[in-house]
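cron nightly-structures :: item 1 of 1
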Amino acid sequence: MKRRNFLKQIGVGAAGIMLVPSFVKCNSPTEDLNFNWGEMERLFMNPPDSAEPWVFWQWMNGNITKEGITLDLEAMKRMGIGGALCFNNAVGIPAGPVDYASSTWFEMTEYAVGEAARLGIEMMIHNSPGYSGTGGPWITPEMSMQQLVWTETQVKGQQSISVHLPQPHARMNWYRDAFVLAYPSLPVENGLMKDRLSKILVNGKEIDKAVLLDGNAESKIRLEQDGSDKSSLLLVFNEAFEARSITILRKAEIPHDLFDGPRDHPPRFELEVSDDGRTFRNVASFSTPQLREMDTPAMQNFEAVSAQYYRVVTSDPTWISNIELHSGPRLAGWPGKANWTHGSDGGNKPNISSELIIDPEKVVDLTSKLDQDGQLEWEAPVKGNWTILRIGHTTTGEEPAAHPDAGKGLEIDKFSREALDFHIEHFNSKLVTLLKPYIGKNFLGFTTDSWEAGKQNWTMQLPAEFKQRTHYDIRPWVLAMTGRIVAGVEQTERFFWDLNKVQADLLAENYYGHWSEWCHRQGLQYHAEPYGDGNLDSMKIGQFLDVPMSEFWTRNIYGSPMTSKQAASIGNVYGKPVVAAESFTGMPATSKWTDYPYSLKAEGDWFYTLGVNRLVFHVFVHQPYTTGLPGMTMGPFGTHFDRNNTWTEQAFGWINHLRRSQFLLQQGLTVADICYFQGDNPHSGVPDIYPLMPKGIRGDVVGRDALFNRFSIQNGKIVLPDGMTYSLCMMEKLDAILPDTVKRLKELVDKGMTLVVQNKPQKSPGMNGSDEDIQSQVDELFGDLDGHFVKRRSFGKGSVYWNVPLSDVLKELPVESDFLYTSQNQDATIHYLHKKIGGAEVYFVSNHKRRKEKIHVSLRVNGLQPEIWNSESGETYVAPMFETKSGRLEMPLELDPAGSVFIILKDKQQSGVITQITKDGTILLENKAYAKPDPAKYKLVQDDFSVALWIKPDTYAHGGRSMLFHSANGEEIFGEGHAICGLGAGQNGVFVYEQASNRANQILTFDEPLEGWTHLVLNYRNGTPELYVNGEKAAIGKKSPFHIHPGLEAPAEESQFISYFEGNYTKPQLEASVLSESDIKMQYRKGLPDLDLLSPVWLNNPGSGQLNAAFLENGNYELYQQSGEKVMLPIKNCLEVDLTNSWQVSFPEDTGAPSQIKLDSLKSLIKHEDFGVRHFSGTCTYQKKLMLDSVLFSEGRRFFLDLGRVEVIARVFLNGREVSLLWKEPFVADITDFVNEGENELQVEITNLWANRLIGDEHLPVENEYSKDRFIFKLPDWYVNNQPKPGKRITFSVWHNLEKEDPLLESGLLGPVKLICAEEKSI
């Protein structure tokens, strides 16, 4: 036969740069008659370098060497890495000899780019030190991020005013005035708190009150418990003081953990008052915002109160630098609205009388009246009481996150082009000059990571920019940025909307946009992750990026899927063919050398289906030296992709899958039916629209810019310039909308767009545009549409829907579901992405779980023949079973654990070969949908039942994560009084959950470590949970107040995707009665069951009219053809040979293990009696002689080697020739072309993980000193001098992540190993 690659792993090397033929870049929505799918298939098997994943290449705090650079890059090439984003960080690592931006550093950088060019690796560089933002030692306070500061002075009964206005706080001794504004004092403004305060006591002890009243945000006092559970700060006045609001300035707390970055741990305060200093009553409670460097106020309003004693109480230790009680009212949530922190409606909203509101017409600008010494001379228009504010700006003090020691400096003013130009001139231009020979070759440009610089709320040019963009003067309204209410609450809120819009636009245009313009002038690209805690409008920023980026973390701890959904929307809406993601970033608890390709694959594939098409691995740490393994780390962060990982040299197996996948996913256009207009408000991030989408329908989020500049209407479809189309536009639920936006929506609907609304906007959000105008235009569009009696209305050629389910709207258009599936396991989790490439329909389908799934899919495709392109193996073939029904293609798929395939539909459909396969009368596969999932499947199983299974956790489990099966809303499914249980587990224990309503509660915990494969039984005995671990009772809980049902086979929900079990486990076995202790012990003693992942028959359809089949088991097979004919195939010559016994295992030198051991029977190395074997990390070699009788070599014989369970990667050699690299289940290799009659020498190289040896070394004498936060105090001399490691320990790491008590990871070849002698037939 011509094709024999049933299981052939195509090992693709990474040699040289492969250019992408122009035809593969086609993104036209119409068929390209010149599109060469034959060449596409060749490139799929051996993809171009442009399809390779990239890495975050982290240079750690000046520990850089040329030798290490070369070795790093050469390792990347062997792995199949196509590019590197180079960062320079510290993250707790001691400083090395190469200072950031020194002449030596520039030399190292030039050398790195040159070496990358030699190897065909592309490079980009983060635009400044650290892993976020832009800045450095050269940034002056004037050019840095700016914040508003002010002082207040009250004058009484004066007209001729001569007064000194104190200068506001100047951080780093830098300050500039912006305005001096005066307004007639409010009736309640009868003196400042500081002038009427007698004393301040902390925990009953008087302090120097000037510390909290001097306006200096750097002076501070510590508020913490002193022998009680709370601490207090008492303000004592000379007489009763009236207040309506409180503002507190804090200084950030030291993070609880070093890896926790700049995050603060804000306290909660209670404000109490007293008339006598003894009996206090509560008047307000409030939380405080998380802090970065900016001096961010915390505030709360309350009904007016007059008292002599005010007391602030908290249970949380904190630093306080300023406190102010205000007699006048303040706007609720003003710190967030004025961009000191995230926008917020926080704060109480007491009634405010008109006399307590500032009239903007009466605000007087006195800026010109202030001399350089702060003296104000002014003749007021009338004699009276005046409140005068001296307003200016100073630096926020923010520095680039995690900068190397030599890169310490300020972040630039992101609203200012001049500031960015200043940074470029002092740093990036020097790099561009140095790297000019590589521009247009392998040096691509600069990147900005996710925003971790906090906010700023001022820039020197803000008044002018504000007026130009809003057409009114900021001056009277700037008083609102101090919390005051100007013209009224509604008007003040509208000003803040304008302010936020202006500042978001300045950031988008003057930072991201200007970066992009400058890079393009140099012939470079600009990539960024446009989200975070700044003044961001992510969708607007996206238009400026050559490659929009996102992030996701292993175990889904940080970095939710939303950033990738956003990046995909940006890519689709703005025609960006590559959408990249910082991938597999790891937390220390869950990523301490515990990750491996199989453990990562399903998560990576899931993000492909969200629209990501380039993975950028986090993290490849620069290893400056050749001794000391695993060596350098990015502090505690993973995942560890660098050259010192145990599986670096085996990574290419998985990466070949990534290369093939990314090659296809970077072509053509994504199919999405709905675009979701998020409104005029600037957003950091996008709303999650997936829960709104009907089953099998995808959508993108669009912003205001795309609505105006990218939309056109053709034949009722929304069409973008690059050919992307949508069937309808759904609008966010908006109370306010800009006048020109309503006008634009009317234009689009009039031309034929379908618009789905969720409410009826009633006003304009800012000062521009009257509410009456908005209402008039909206009324014209809506007509009699009210969402109740009238739910659909025609407008021009288009329609508007309100309160009609999206599924019904799509039916009317008509638009069918694009992708639907049913499954044998009703809790199967299957993801998909649909693309149009060169006139073909391409679906990527992935299995989220590490178990085999049989599914039946229904695709919105008619008349095209499906081909299966397997990105794991490179194999391509025509699907052997498919049929078109009612205009939809239907076909079954068998997906391996964490498996994925492409379905390519490009040729005119011919008949499917078969419709059903049976073995001994049992159906193996048929083209028929499975039953729909039933959430109430176990309605009759309650209170008394058992669930038993074996589990192998890969890592630590966070609360509510790593679920073996999920709980669900019991009362919604079964009725009142019912709950559903769930079970989670990790190396740190087992956790039982119950859920009656919307929230699951953890009700039972076993918090002992789990090592390797572990037997679990969850019993419910009369509603009381019991846990058994390895045959022994481990924990018992309380009787549930609910009737409890098992959460097994709960239909997959999107909320569960981030919390599936991290590891392997057997199928849970449910008993509708309670297992006895003897039954449980018997199950445990029987041991771990063998894997059952292989189908009895494997089919391959080369498309020639002949079907090839490999039969692995004997039996009577029947294949039913579409013509109605039945082919009967009695298979009698299949054979399995058990190879589990008698193996010799060899270990490399200097690994702590003996050179060789013999195993009578395969078992995990962690169960071996030898300490060195038990704690071995690296690659060991299993050897066995295999005698095969000539009688086995009959015609049509195929030989498969099934390794059973492998921890974690296997490389198979037979008779001195490499057969295959096996990196995921099933660990099966086709050895037909390698096996000989008679004696055969079988070698299997098994690579495990670093954790076991790191744990083992913790039993040996300490060699280095680490802090409580686990970072090393000093790099050892032998390490920095690149000398052999002394001492008894085998390993060395700059981060101390593991202890001797930690559980070991399964290791080696576990088996059982079988030789499968199969029969091959052509049909």
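cron nightly-structures :: done
The domain at 187-357 is CATH 2.60.120.260 (Jelly Rolls).
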